[in-house]
Amino acid sequence: MNLWHPTSENIWQGRNDLAEADNALRVFQTIKQPVSFSPEAFPHHIALVGFECDEGVKLNQGRPGAKLGPEYLRQSLANLASYQGHDRLVDLGNIRANPEKLSEAQNALSDAVHHCLQHKMKTLIFGGGHETAFAHGMGIYRAFPTQRIGIINFDAHLDLRNSPQPTSGTPFRQLAHYCQQHQRPFNYTCIGASLASNTQALLDEANHLDVTIIWDTQCVEPMPDKLQQQLQDIINQVDIIYMTIDLDVLPIWQMPAVSAPAALGVPLDRLLPFIQLICQSKKLQAVDLVELNPLYDIQGMGGKAAARLAWQLVHWWHE
User: Could you tell me which residues are annotated as the binding site for Mn(2+)?
Assistant: First the structure.
């Protein structure tokens, strides 16, 4: 596998409570860690793959450091209690980008995702910047050439930028172009977007592509019936769901560890009902968590929030 590296040996560590009871288990004790990239050995499991890349963030004039996110998120997740779903996690290592080689890294991740999905695994990618989404999405479209794919992005930003070169701000515009070229529908929903963080040009592009937007200001109260029905309608329209979570959708007081922290954002307790509905839809095939930047974390707050989010969605993810 091109650009592949195994996960560092010291990442999966935590407290050992087995002297207390044989079911006093934590994620670091139940996750599977093969020595090679071997999706064919783990059908119906969840492939955890890191994307050590922030080349797109740099090109988008953001703060680099997200390439450190995959190992940092693993460390934050390792010591959490293991319950149903967590034993399906298989750590298949990392795709590591070379400097100024964004397309090369994205192609490598797309191939890894395609390989996992072809062997009946689900994919959980820890980014990396949101350039992760173009690579992950490409792998999904390639693996399911005839199915209707719905992209649900939790993000303060629409990421539909018009740029002469791909960046962390262009992935969904790129996927829209891919769909147009291959005569496939582009079904994209962005939840938690901030009007203050998206220009009119981006809204015009979203309208042109018929993007569904649920604004952060619509998420300030517990999910009302109207939003729940809207999300259920989106789910009903597709065969397969790709859920991508840019951690800057969370407010700065929960997630300081991103390139562009959100002043308002959507707190975890508002976000989780949306995610639960998607996880239990039986259509979710692929998830990524992106933009975690440990260089800007404060006392591990961002790492803990990201880990709880990853822990929760894996627990809810319908087998």
Answer: 130, 155, 157, 159, 246, 248
